[in-house]
Structure formats: C-alpha cells, structure tokens
Write a structure and sequence with these properties.
mainly alpha; 57% helix; 305 residues
Length: 305
C-alpha cells in the first residue's frame, strides 16, 4: 500500500513538472523571437565595429538556432515524459531521463557562454556616427529602416544628441523617427518651432545598455536557470519512480505442480502419492467403495462367502 501511494505521488509531481517544461519552453521561444528582431537591427547599425562583436557575444547564445531547437526538443521530451509517467513504461521513462540529461548539459554550456563579459567601452559608441551618412540613400534602405526602427522603439535620436544628424549628414533636420509623435514632416516642424518634440536622448547609450544586457536577457537567464533546476528535479523523480516500479519487487511464485490433497496426481506426475490416497484391496467382510472419474461414488456391497 505504501509503494502504491509513493508511485501515485511521484507521478503527480512528474505531471506538474512536464506541464512546467511546456510553459517555460514556450516563454523562452517567445522572448528569444522578440530579442531576435531587436538584435538584427542593432547588428545592422553596429556593423564592422567592436559593438557588433560584443552584441554577438552577448546575444548569440540565447537566440542561436541550437538553443531554439533545444527548446522545441524539450517540448517533445516533456510529452514523452508525460506518456511514460501515465503508462509507467520503463523504456519511455529511461529515454526521458537520458534526453533531460543531454538538454541540461547544453543549457549549462549556454549559460556559461552568456555570462561572459562583452569587451566594450562607452567611447566605442562614437563609431556609430560612421553609419549616419548613408541614411536615406537608395542603396542603403536596409540601414535607413534599421535607424528608423531603433529610434522609434528606443525613443532616441542620433548617437549622442539629435544634432548628430545635422553634423554627419547634409540633412537640415533630423528624421521623422526622432519625433515623440510621428507624422509626415514632424521633425521639420519640431526643428523650427519646438525642439522638445524630438527625443532628447541619443541612441548610443541605448545601444550600449542593450549590449550590456536587457531585462529580456535577464528573463531568459532566469528561465534557463529555472528549467535547469526543474530538469534536475525531474530526473531525480524519474529515477525514484523507476526504482519504486521495477526494483525490489518479489518475483511471483511458480505454480505448484502437485495437485491438492485427495486429487489424482496422474501417472506421469513427479509428486508422491500419499499412502492414505492409494486404493487398496478390500478386507474380508468389508465393503469397498470405488471412486469414479466424475467424482461420484458407487456403492456396491460385495458378499464374501
């Protein structure tokens, strides 16, 4: 009875952990997809600079296709663990344990990689100004879109200040993506009437903060640690469940070849026949009651003369 209660408790815990794996893996995929869009724009703006190398060093481990594949694989492994726990199948539970161990090793390697400090300085932000003269040119539409996206999402303008656009380009006013309220011609109107309608903070510090680590990156690291701890707990519970199901069980006793007392063992049976069960000759003056194969008795009185 105690073994059955333990198995039931272990199965409930594994069900809960597998559900937790599904939720956390989906969250990791969602946050990684969100970071990938921002990272692509940052890499476009910081191409051929030290900032690009630092961004790749910081974010590649968490948006790398291998990590995405591991999260997708974790969802499948959780399904296998759910089925193995439901059916108490030795093969599925063993496969589940081995896959969790492999995924844990990959996550540990990724965690060590992401915690490496990117080698950048604030002075490296000045190198972003070299990307500004190509803004608006027909052959650099991809760079123009990256500047507009970053200035809109991070609410910044220029590298250090919005006047960088006037210094590094032939523009008379900043792009419209620098406006707090964007509409066609908003930057021209703000430049001549009210500069407070433009974003006052430069994009250089924003990019520097992004490379050093964002809240989303911290969330991914927290989810990674949580998944790792949950995997260790799941592997421990899986081993315990396997032990409770398949270890220490007493093998069933083999069937007794000897029939019950009073039954005919048969001519080829290895069981000895008891003396009291052997039919002997009737004594003089006594009646002999033979036993028929169908279990009925036949009473015959023999008169011995």
């Amino acid at each position: 009875m105690a073994r059955e209660d333990s198995v039931k408790c272990l199965r409930c815990l594994l069900f809960a952990l597998n559900l937790l794996f599904w939720i956390m893996a989906i969250c990791v995929l969602g946050v990684a997809a969100w970071l990938r869009d921002y990272l692509n724009n940052v890499l476009t703006l910081t191409a051929d600079t030290r900032l690009e190398e630092a961004a790749i060093l910081t974010y590649s481990p968490v948006v790398h296709p291998v990590i995405i594949a591991v999260c997708c694989f974790l969802i499948i492994v959780a399904m296998v663990g759910y089925c193995g726990t439901l059916k108490c199948n030795l093969l599925l539970l063993s496969w589940y344990f081995g896959c969790l161990l492999v995924i844990l090793c990959v996550e540990l390697a990724s965690g060590v990689w992401t915690y490496e400090e990117p080698p950048i300085l604030r002075s490296d932000m000045i190198s972003l100004k070299s990307r500004m003269p190509s803004y608006g040119l027909p052959r650099y539409q991809w760079l123009t879109q990256a500047w507009n996206f970053f200035q809109t999402e991070f609410k910044c303008c220029g590298v250090i200040y919005f006047t960088d656009w006037l210094e590094m380009t032939e523009m008379e006013w900043p792009p419209d993506s620098c406006c707090a309220r964007q509409y066609p011609g908003c930057a021209r109107q703000a430049h001549y009437w009210d500069l407070s309608d433009l974003h006052q903070e430069g994009c250089g510090p924003k990019i520097y903060s992004f490379i050093r680590g964002t809240k989303q990156l911290q969330v991914l690291r927290f989810l990674g640690v949580s998944i790792g701890v949950s995997q260790i707990l799941a592997m421990t519970l899986t081993l315990t469940l396997l032990w409770a199901l398949y270890y220490g069980r007493r093998a069933p006793d083999p069937p007794d070849p000897c029939p019950a007392a009073g039954a005919d063992p048969g001519p080829h049976s290895p069981c000895p026949v008891e003396d009291g069960a052997k039919p002997g000759p009737a004594r003089p003056g006594e009646a002999w009651t033979p036993v028929l194969p169908n279990g009925h008795t036949q009473f015959e009185m023999e008169q011995i003369s």
